[in-house]
Q: What sequence folds into this?
């Protein structure tokens, strides 16, 4: 089935050690999003791509970066994870620029120790 | 700028009872509205959406939501809930760029 797949589902990293989360899609959607969801909170948009056009939210920390080497893959890099970066990270895709329907992956739960 | 308010963080309800989860939004542009459901340690699944046309939208599993422009609301309802409906429900608004979510409502269906 066409899907949005996030790997790994669970990631444990050490304080300050760089970590990369990955997302792939078989939907051939132009738009890809990364959201951060902390416990009992709303998902918060970090960045999104329209094709290779990168859009960073104003309040996304510099510690977070993203790469989209092709339509199918998108990566979230956390350069120096802190305890406050522990969260569920959600990747989503959408067909066009008007965000009429977003398809979400299962998420990666990041633990920082 | 846009925002979504879900006034109830938790809604306990008995099985087969009706339920309403409230959602209000604010936006400076016309919007699309959504309800997503999230089960523990899972991603978000689209439940239903309002883009245009009929203000009452329905999902395949018995939920419905009504867009009320004058009250800027998009409340979610179900006439009879099941244990399997226990989950977190997020209301979201799109400004045609990205989704902005409310803080979620935990629906707890008790036998």
A:
């Amino acid at each position: 089935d066409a899907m949005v797949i996030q790997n790994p589902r669970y990631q444990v990293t050490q304080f300050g050690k760089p970590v990369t989360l990955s997302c792939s899609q078989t939907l051939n959607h132009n738009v890809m999003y990364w959201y951060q969801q902390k416990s009992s909170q709303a998902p918060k948009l970090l960045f999104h791509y329209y094709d290779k056009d990168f859009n960073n939210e104003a309040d996304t920390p510099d510690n977070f970066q993203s790469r989209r080497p092709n339509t199918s893959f998108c990566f979230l890099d956390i350069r120096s994870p802190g305890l406050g970066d522990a969260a569920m990270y959600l990747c989503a895709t959408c067909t066009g620029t008007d965000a009429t329907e977003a398809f979400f992956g299962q998420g990666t739960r990041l633990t920082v120790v | 700028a846009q925002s979504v308010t879900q006034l109830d963080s938790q809604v306990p309800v008995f099985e087969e009872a009706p339920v309403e989860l409230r959602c209000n939004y604010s936006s400076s542009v016309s919007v699309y509205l959504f309800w997503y459901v999230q089960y523990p340690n899972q991603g978000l699944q689209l439940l239903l959406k309002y883009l245009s046309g009929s203000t009452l939208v329905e999902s395949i599993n018995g939920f419905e939501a009504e867009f009320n422009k004058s009250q800027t609301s998009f409340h979610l309802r179900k006439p009879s809930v099941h244990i399997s409906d226990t989950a977190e429900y997020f209301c979201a608004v799109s400004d045609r760029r990205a989704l902005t979510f409310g803080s979620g409502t935990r629906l707890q269906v008790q036998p």
